[in-house]
Amino acid sequence: MTGSNGSTAVSDQPVLPKPEGLEGVVAASTALSHVLGEQGKLVYRGYDIHELAGKASFEEVAYLLWNGVLPTHTELDGLLRSLGEQRSLPDHVIDVIRSLPVSARPMDALRTGASALGAIDAEGFDDLPDLDEAIALTAKFPGILAAFFRHRQGLEPVRPKVEHNTAQSYLYQLFGQEPEERHWRPLEVYLTLLADHGMNASTFTARVIASTGSDLCSSITGAIGALKGPLHGGAPSKVLDMLEAIGTAENVDAWLTDALNRGDRLMGFGHRVYKAEDPRAEILRGMAREAATPEFFELSRRTEERALAMLHERKPDRRLYTNVEFYSAAVLSAVGLPGDMFTPTFATSRVAGWTAHVLEQMANNRLIRPQSEFIGPMDKTFVAIESR
Ligand code: ACO
């Protein structure tokens, strides 16, 4: 039997379509979020992201993802209290973070911390994922990152305050000072924008692990690993590197031309699903205009315009637009975060979506176990090592 790529199929299974990178394959049903790529629309539980951005707090969005409805005042207060009470890390987890080299990358520290929680807090995180665990993990992400951020500067962790919301607590634990509203507000909007995004690679990873009956910390540890890659969540620090390397508006064209001639991908552009502008990019552009310095915003804007024009010239058949990562760089820098904390900050938001997806998967679970197309040889005869 000859497969679509000309290879000989030697499986006893029927030959099925095999889109590269699973493009267009429906891997699960979800009521959590939906990306309408042609329209440039993102929906959380029925709400267009424009309905929520700047109006709903991160905790309201997390509640919505976990429970399917927006919370009442009482329900929101209850969630804020639970998150506040759950923020502190077990001492052993702090010890694990302190044992990491200061040269470790924050995403690796976050992955290690999430994994350590599963091993150390076995009572809090048993084998059956539930909403309390989802809240606890979401509450602890800022502390894991902040503990590592301070460890690499030789500083002690800061004890979180129960009364802080997630954005405030993250900045407070990082910098050890009461956060200013001009910093935590944009961070909070950023967190609401990134909380979920359909069947992206890290969410798929979390659901695959959950489908085996594994525990929540394992699912989320795997998802962190998937998010780290530059083709997924690892792009925003590279956007910052690009903008810093470009340096001035006069240098934009020459720098982008060189990069494209080398065959490099321009970070912050393109998306598997969006065939129109990512709505989060549009909102973040507006936030960057307010939060970043005018010089940095102008450099970002000029780079975006020229990159889009050049990508269009070179790939007229492929519609490439600005993605969420491009203006994330300007917003997160303005909030005071260094580039290598951008992707972990993304994870601090996305953990709400990942955990909601794990709970959804568990509510109607069947092991996710696809097929592979075998393209290797068959029927070889063993040759003893002396004769090879
Ligand atoms: N710069 C230059 N060329 C690009 C870019 C880019 N940013 N994005 C896509 N292309 C080109 C590819 O080289 C390819 O050209 P070819 O057909 O001549 O080989 C064509 O457009 C199609 O690209 P694919 O890789 O097939 O698109 P895919 O859907 O697999 O990839 C992705 C999407 C990974 C996001 C891609 O656009 C990319 O690498 N962008 C840069 C990294 C980035 O910004 N990542 C963050 C994504 S957002 C998120 O995950 C949160």
Question: What features would you describe in this structure?
Answer:
The chain is globular. A hairpin with a 4-residue loop joins strand 1 (33-36) and strand 2 (41-44). The protein has 388 residues and is an all-alpha fold. The two termini are 31 Å apart. The chain has a 3-stranded antiparallel beta sheet. It contains 16 helices and 3 strands. The longest helix has 22 residues, at 342-363. The structure holds acetyl coenzyme *A (ACO). The site of acetyl coenzyme *A (ACO) has 21 residues, from helix 15.
Task: Let me know the largest β-sheet.
Answer: 3 strands, antiparallel
Shape: globular
Number of helices: 16
Low-confidence parts lasting 5 or more residues at pLDDT below 50?
1-9
Q: What's the Cα radius of gyration? A: 22 Å
**Integer average pLDDT:** 94
**H-E order:** EEEHHHHHHHHHHHHHHHH
Structural class: mainly alpha
Strand order of the largest sheet: 1-2-3
Distinct bound molecules: acetyl coenzyme *A
Helix content: 40-55%
Strand content: under 5%
The total beta strand count reads 3
Report the end-to-end length measured between terminal Cα atoms.
31 Å
